[in-house]
Please model this.
Amino acid sequence: MNDAVQSLAQVRQNIDAAERGAGRDPGGVTLVAVSKTFGADDIRPVIEAGQRVFGENRVQEAQAKWPGLKADFPDLELHLIGPLQSNKAKEAVALFDVIETVDREKIAAELAREIARQGRALRLYVQVNTGSEPQKAGIEPTDAVAFVKRCREVHGLAIEGLMCIPPFDENPGPHFALLEKLAREADVAKLSMGMSGDYETAIAFGATSVRVGSAIFGAR
Model:
């Protein structure tokens, strides 16, 4: 069996155990397999093992490998989990099913224009910079609820969730708790939080999807 396929099975077991440990319904957490920097030949065995939801960081990299995979597996769901530049909005709307990194007014406006022009029903998340890190993308926590409201009312965007990437050197729990609180205040149902090192913790705090890359595909 392929190493990534074995690792996928282990991650799924860990998710099931974390759901049970948190007293949550089984199967309520979506696994987003993060395939950035890995080619189609690395990804295909994981698809064939039943994984259908994947995450990519860069539009250009995703364009090089996913159109062919999507043609072979039409039920795949592709998430953009890296920062989106406004000049890539057209390509992102055409390729991705979910964009998790809406974080500023300009991106919201560009996405609204492209979604209307292409007639696609994308699902969108607002990225929150829970650690207020200057080098990291995401809206400030104090602005998040108002920004979700503007995305909906001004731009007509269907914001269904919030996403965060806690500071790597801090306990992620308080950041996950903050995101869950903001989601309730903003009236959004989905929480994309937790990566390879902390996805079980994120599930305990209410994650509805976890973004796991190296624990499946190995070191980049």
